[in-house]
Design brief:
- The protein has 159 residues and is α+β, with helices and mostly antiparallel strands.
- The chain has one domain: Roll (Thiol Ester Dehydrase, Chain A), CATH 3.10.129.10.
- The protein is built from three helices and six strands, in the order E-H-H-E-E-E-E-H-E.
- Strands 1, 2, 3, 4, 5 and 6 form a six-stranded mixed β-sheet that branches.
């Protein structure tokens, strides 16, 4: 399991003086990018292959409040990956300074070709990097159908 430590800053709080929703998203994004960089997905390599990660959803479950003053840790586990690497699912857990789990998130995303702006499979070099990564309990080989499990579609406003 990959983890990253953070200090909760004043700017991470909301009007209730606890960790704001947006801060959870920022901490998870920072954790994911740290993990991906350690796997070789840095700005240079992603630019070389014209790839970028996109988020389909992030479902966050809050168990307890988190406040400034004590460090926290955010974990990342690889919960799913499609055979071609196009789709991925990560799970994050938030832990306080005593190791108590105060939030959980399930997120799913994919890779986008930065030229065509279409979803794209991973090049072999990146797919090989994922092959050596520890998989979470319940790891699943993802299919396109897994990305549609919540079946939300846009509904345009009539003008």
């Amino acid at each position: 399991m990959y983890t990253k430590s953070f200090d909760i800053r004043w700017s991470d709080l909301d009007a209730n003086r606890h960790l704001a929703n947006a801060s959870y998203l920022n901490f998870m994004s920072h954790t994911r990018m740290g993990f991906l960089m350690e796997c070789g997905f840095n700005q240079e390599s992603m630019a070389q292959y014209q790839l970028g990660p996109v988020v389909f959803y992030e479902h966050i479950y809050y168990f307890k409040e988190a406040f400034a003053g004590k460090p926290i840790q955010v974990s990342l586990e690889l919960k799913g990956l499609s055979k071609d690497g196009m789709f991925f699912e990560f799970h994050h857990n938030f832990y306080d300074h005593k190791g108590k789990n105060f939030a959980h998130c399930e997120m799913m995303g994919a890779w986008i070709d930065m030229k065509s702006r279409a979803l794209a499979p991973l090049p072999e070099v990146f797919l090989n990097a994922f092959a050596g990564i520890e998989k979470a309990d319940g790891f699943k080989v993802l299919t396109k159908e897994d990305t549609r499990k919540f079946a939300k579609k846009p509904v345009d406003k009539t003008v």
